[in-house]
Structures are given as C-alpha cells and as structure tokens.
Design goal:
Elements (H helix, E strand, L loop, with lengths): L7 H26 L7 H14 L14
Length: 68
C-alpha cells in the first residue's frame, strides 16, 4: 500500500501485537504484585506470543519486522 496507508493485514497484525503486549504486561503486573520475581511458564508463553506477533509488524509500527 501507500507510504502511510496500512493494508487490512497490517492493521490486523498491529492489533494482534497490541493485544499480545497488553496481555504480557497485565501478567507482569499481576506477578509483580504477587511477589513473583522469576520468569514463570505463563510469562514465557506470553512473551513468545508477543515476539511472534512483533515479527509480523514493521518497526515503524512497534514491531521487529525489517523492511518489506
């Protein structure tokens, strides 16, 4: 698409990344509040999901994907 226009796929990938990040950070806040200081299996699962979603989004929009 154009320089500033996102395709429907790009918009969906950005939304998925934001949701994954929100879930990861919500879990992090819960674990910190409970006094958990090590990486739990749930944290590792959510982090892996967030990383997978970030790989599909360009750096311009907060992901880790390089170029087009």
């Amino acid at each position: 698409m154009g320089l500033f226009k996102k395709s429907p796929e790009e918009r969906a990938a950005i939304a998925e990344l934001k949701a994954a990040d929100a879930a990861l950070h919500a879990n992090q806040r819960r674990e910190e509040k409970a006094g958990i200081r090590e990486e739990t299996p749930e944290y590792l699962r959510l982090n892996a999901t967030a990383n997978e979603k970030a790989a599909k989004v360009s750096r311009w929009h907060g992901g880790t994907k390089r170029g087009r």
